[in-house]
Design a protein that fits this description.
The structure is a homopentamer of 276-residue chains. The first copy, chain A, has helices spanning 5-9, 31-35, 39-55, 86-98, 120-132, 140-156, 158-161, 191-207, 237-247, 250-255, and strands at 16-29, 64-70, 77-83, 105-118, 170-178, 213-218, 227-233, 256-258, 262-267. The first copy, chain A, is an alpha+beta fold and 276 residues long. The longest helix of chain A has 17 residues, at 39-55. The B-D interface holds B 31-32, 35, 69, 71-74, 169-170, 172, 174, 181-184, 207, 231, 236-237, 239-245, 247-248, 252-254, 258, 260-261, 263, 265, 275 and D 12-13, 18, 23, 25-26, 85-87, 89-90, 93-94, 97, 102-103, 107-112, 114, 138, 180, 182-183, 185, 187-188, 218-224, 226.
């Protein structure tokens, strides 16, 4: 099928809007060193950590830090920070490092990203409408029109751009890429093909809506994969079912490359002492 | 061969049922630090460890931890935990870490998964029967029918879903993926093609039934490979023969990607002191 | 399209000019060891570090060292040294290592490169003109003519070859390669094809000119990737938008391979104590 | 060439027989810690190690441990254990770890395998003969006939299945795989094609018979590569010449993937003190 | 072009001659531990190191050790040992490790190889002449003739086979492979094709003869890559220009795979204290 000239000239980049700045920190707990401390010193350190982590346990104006106990050797603890910007993420990292507890945590991984909502479904429509009005891509007027569209989406989607971390028992975090192989290359697919595939993909996710909540963050240019995915559920087997089902979907089967998977159990700030 | 329309519309995901939550922990033993302890302290630590590991050495309501002495540098000990759910796995990890012995163990690897039995052979039949009755995939009624089918399998297969760890002298554990290459992609194969290949694959395994026992666990979305495989045998050369023979089988030759292999010798909880 | 004989005989290497020698050093801060020091000793070490880093904070005759606080586990600090040559880079490394602070920094990464400006757009023109004058590639006269051309570019581009590190709040550094795949191989593309693709690529960058400044350095034969890219911006989300948009561009979509991404917040030399 | 129906039905797995269980252990020597010991303590540790290593220096009923001083950073020492079974390998590892010297050795690698002699040349003949007698693959009678054939080979090849470690000055150890690429896949080649290629490959090895001795061990299902190769020679340049010449041979050029290479100098047990 | 029968029957391996045994050792300097020593102890250690390194600083009968200060985190020092054989390399390693300085050096890498000069240009001619005389490859007479040819080359090329390490200010060391891809495979190319490509490749090197000196060593079967390349120059930018220009050459563009690059500044033995 030959694309009509207007379609062929559309910019290839799908529209998206951005929200919270996100840092995942995976940490090993230096247990032998910890156990060498006196009970009194440990109590004092726990008391301080409980205080600090309680203060950011619930989202306040888009600022929140959730703590998870990771399963397996990739780390003992995962701290998930949502903040207004990167400077606040830096402060959050530094604040954690400076706690007494910080001396007993050694980083094993991290991930830096920004909450992102892609709007594939309306991108071609918006671009097409602008072109039919005679606007050329990347002109000042084009940019203003696009910015206006994005602003409307930012307002409508604000709760999902600045989300509270779902209060589920389990989290599953992993980074991912779209494949750029020598013959199968996502970034060489047309906007409409990508839109079609993302739509089918989204349909699977929606079938799990009652069981899993998902937060997607973009990290192209920020970290070593293109996206970070956080899934939240009370039954961790659902992570397996959802991701396995998606793996048969064209966009994942052919184009998804996955980084390491991290599964953790939520820990209330007040219970942090219970897992040390 | 053009698939008939009904076949083409079948969901691509094979049916499967799930059982025990599984954690493999590979640990290095910090021998120099251990040897620096007094005999008395070491005896006390061993005594505590023997007590704790004896308590979970045999399966009680699906809870069990087996200990293996690993061969080679990937770790000195491997703990294989089977539990009812992930929260119990977290407790098992924490319990082990808090033993006196925990200070002399450093993690070198781990694997998180859920015992899984695929039922490829009847998947197409079940899907086809439902569609012939006019049910549409993913509708409420479809889901209920599927759930009913799975429940019958869960009951019939309960002993294999919640297995006791076989009491063989040797274990072989490795994770694996199905290949998603640019031209050879398991997840793009049709359900019937996959079913055909899995059937041939299963036939090889059955020829080794008297010599090897196998427990498959699924880990898509939980850990970095899609499946974990545990083989149990009294003659470790059988691991080599079985896996080598399978490597010529289409599903392995073309579609299997293997992670690191771990071979260990079972250690009775009461003998743990003998390998330290 | 058959290339005409003159074009076919052109040397394949695009012209470029070189400037500052560059070293990126990523460092972990050994915080527990640091916190074990007395306040007095720490003050003394900070005082010395502030002095040393202040002296090179601003570019003096092409010599400058900027300090960034990195986000995530790839390091706590990144030192970016611009110098006149490699010997000065070695001195800069040694000078930093010998500060009192040096004992509390452990290297986690580094990158060695030379600021480079490619002049794809005029390469074919220059080569063609020389050949039309009857000069043969690589003869003494050819080399003198080329050297003369490069000298004119070196003078015209001096401010970009010996740049001051932009005073933006954020930096994004990553290394990259051009793909040499079995079917898609940048180094097998013709000079004119590469020129065409680089031109389109540059156009995207120019649309971000007001928001991002970029310094490209070449590292073929010096470090493990072919180029290092530094982006400087006051809004880090721009890193994501720019690099994501570029990913759809042919030269990136098909031919770019990316190493690890590092994002940091600029730290004034006088504030170094504030992030320790 | 269409294979005739009998050939097509032959099992794809070549016959092979197995012998000694093999463990390679690569170790770093913790020299600074060692040098901190008093001369007296070091003498005592060396004395004990010499005694233990002398006891297994020469093959006794298939049990032997050879010591090599490795060149380069992959380790300082390599212990090569040949034993009757895996349980004895585990004991050998534990025995070494429990020597006083064990506290000054840190593992950097290892390899687990079983000496294996492939009998490609007669496999098709044996299979064909059985099928012409009307036996079906994998039936009890088939298995008995095969087992009988293997037993005859095991007896005839016993000295090579339970070899003494050649007393050459140098060893070269590396693991390897047969490629399973998307288009070039060893395990999809027919038995006769593989036999043909292995024959040509063997011919090269035979030309080096006077200069190099070779022990192949299989490790599919036991360690991370499919085979381990030990070469023994008095002139290490022969390792280079042999393996380079083989690299042009079809089976290596197309189908061989190589792991890390380790080259070591044999150390007499009585001289172990001389390299510490 | 169909090869004539004689050409087709030529052995595929190019002739080459070998010289010095080479070990590169990359070392991290344990600076914090070093700085904890008293000035007097440090002086004594430096004095001893200067003495030992001075003794081998200049080539004596093919024995030499050069010291470089590496740029970046891959190591602080690189020792390049040229010796008569591997046993002498082992001694050189051990000698260095046993210096007082040895306790403050930790290995970060190494490379083992043998200086090698390929003689592609005359290989086909020699092979062809022998075959025209009716000699069959690999017969005793064939081998004697080849050995005679190689001996003549060994004598003529002795200064390049047993080279003195060039006294340039900078070194660039990297290992490399020839690609064995599924479609592009160096080892499947004909001898004459490889000869043609190597000739073009050599022509580029010769254009840099005045600026760079190069020592190639072979490491197939000795270390993890097939060749080691040392470049020596007084202007390190030349490393970049030479290797970048070569990357467009067919043999590099298509068939070269590169390992890590190491760039160092030569340190006189007497100045070793100046970089600690």
């Amino acid at each position: 099928m030959t694309p009509d000239p207007v379609t062929a000239a559309l910019p290839p980049v799908p529209l998206s809007v951005e929200g919270a700045s996100v840092m995942h920190q995976m940490m090993r707990f230096r247990r032998p060193e910890w156990r060498a401390l006196s009970t009194m010193v440990r109590s004092e350190i726990v008391r301080e950590a409980v205080g600090a982590l309680t203060a950011t346990e619930h989202a306040v104006e888009g600022r929140q830090t959730a703590v998870y106990s990771l399963l397996g050797h990739k780390g003992d603890l995962m701290f998930v920070h949502f903040r207004r910007n990167f400077e606040e993420l830096q402060s959050a990292e530094l604040h954690l490092a400076r706690l007494g507890l910080g001396d007993y945590l050694a980083p094993t991984g991290s991930y830096l990203s920004i909450v992102e909502l892609g709007i594939y479904e309306s991108t071609a429509k918006v671009y097409g409408a602008l072109m039919e009005r005679g606007l050329q891509p990347y002109t000042e007027q084009w940019k203003q029109e696009i910015e206006g569209t994005l602003d409307r989406h930012r307002q409508a989607m604000a709760p999902r751009l600045w989300p509270e971390i779902p209060a589920t028992k389990y989290v599953c975090f992993y980074p991912m890429d779209r494949r750029r192989g020598e013959t199968k290359n996502w970034y060489e697919e047309s906007l409409s093909e990508r839109q079609r595939m993302m739509e089918k993909h989204g349909a699977i996710g929606r079938r799990y809506a009652g069981e899993v909540r998902q937060i997607i963050s973009g990290s192209t240019g920020l970290d070593d994969w293109e996206w970070g995915v956080d899934l939240f559920a009370n039954d961790p087997a659902v992570f397996k079912r959802l991701i396995y089902e998606m793996r048969f979907d064209e966009v994942s089967a052919v184009y998804a490359l996955f980084g390491p998977f991290h599964v953790g159990v939520r820990v209330a700030a007040s219970d942090i002492g219970g897992i040390l």
